[in-house]
Amino acid sequence: MSFLSTRSVLLNTNVMDVKLLVKIWRASDVKMIGMAGYGRKYVADVEFKESLKNGGFIYVKIPGGMKTHPHAHGILEEVFIIMNRTKMSVGGQLLDVDHGDVVLVEPGEAHSFETPEGDDVVVIAIKFPNLKDDKISSSQR
Questions:
Q1: Exposed, middle or buried, 25 (CB in 10 Å: 0-12/13-18/19+)?
Q2: Where are the domains of the chain?
Q3: How far apart are CA 124 and CA 61, in angstroms?
Q4: Given this structure, which CATH class describes domain 7-133?
Q5: How far apart are alpha carbons 109 and 28 in whole angstroms?
Q6: Which of 23, 77, 111, 117 stands 20 to 30 A from 102 (CA)?
Q7: Cα–Cα–Cα angle for 121, 124, 129, nearest 5°?
Q8: How far apart are CA 42 and CA 3, in angstroms?
Q9: Are β-strands 39-40 and 77-82 bridged in parallel, bridged antiparallel, or unpaired?
Q10: Strands 93-97 and 7-12
């Protein structure tokens, strides 16, 4: 019996005519399991392309009504844990994401956020490996 739910979305992009596969794990698709004094949802089981020695964990707060600038990363993979409802663009396609969803963005995939008016959004970004100078603008792609 599997308790994981994965949705993969095939995205078309104008960048070098490449098809990108964005992986989204929806917390709403997974049942809460009662434990001793708490509940849990096993939302994502992620396999990375490379062997990892480190990772960076970043708390991100985006003001309501904000549209962030699209960017991509040359080497690192980035996992986003969505803490409240917002829109996330990956590869030019705007996706609705919600509390507890997990989104895996692979190297070269341009991504950005559009937050609802009046509601700040919190996202946990996890970078593997932890490269601080790996950002490239989407126009460089």
A1: buried
A2: 7-133
A3: 9
A4: mainly beta
A5: 25
A6: 117
A7: 145
A8: 7
A9: unpaired
A10: unpaired
Which residue do the tokens 């396609």 mark?
A: 93
pLDDT (tens digit per residue) in 48-79: 777 888 999 999 999 999 999 999 999 999 99
Q: For the segment 91-140, what is each residue's pLDDT rounded down to a tens digit?
A: 988 999 999 999 999 999 999 999 999 999 999 999 999 998 898 976 54
Taking alpha carbons only, the member of 26, 65, 23, 14 closest to residue 48 is 23
Q: How many C-beta atoms lie closer than 10 Å to residue 91's C-beta?
A: 26
> pTM, whole model, 2 decimals?
0.75
Work out whether the CA dihedral 45, 133, 69, 107 comes out positive or negative.
Answer: negative
